[in-house]
Amino acid sequence: MNKINFAKAVKLLEEAYEDWDAPAKRFERGYRRTPYTIMISVVLSFRTKDEVTLAADKKLFALADTPEKMVKLSRQEIEKVIYPVGFYRKKAQTILDISHTVLERFKGEVPRSEAELLGIKGIGPKAANIILESAFGVETVAVDIHVHRILNRWGFVSTKTPEESLKILKEKLTPAEQKGLNKLLVSFGQVLCRPVKPICSECPVVQLCERKL
DNA sequence: AAAACGGGGGC
DNA sequence: GCCCCAGTTTT
Any idea where the HhH-GPD domain is (predicted)? Predict the structure, then answer.
């Protein structure tokens, strides 16, 4: 797929977004959405299905939805609630570590810069991107496993890893063209262009896709 | 560069 | 039963 068709595909996706992304809005969160709860929720979501994460979010934030309250819980209390998400021992410890860091280093406020977020143990590049985007509305440029898969299926890149895809994306596209792309393609990858059994019959871009994967 | 951390959902 | 999950830290 060349750059012209890539731009067309993105445009088609944007125009049809409300239709195909409706299922992604099916979740009622049932807890206060603050930068802090968003950050903790991101930690819980690592390598875990959305439905499972959400159930754990609700239970955990019913117990504590601020760092002040969270550090009063024991690791075992947290583990008990988040058990189904997997990696529960490590994640419980990470949640406590992060809460302490936010309290002590940042006066209880989640920092707004990527560098400061990355300085927190337990927050890596992907988590920092999600937090910046979801909590502070910053449009980030990143290539996660969804975006990587889609770019390859479309035939816009031919790469092995998300890191390679990101490199090529930055070479091929201007910063303006990259803006908002990540969020759009992640939604697309979750709803239609899934890893297994993509729903090509409902895909707005199927005519342009080269189905490379 | 590879291992370790893991239970739950879809098929 | 097998594959997958917006990942990060440690070895």
Answer: 44-191
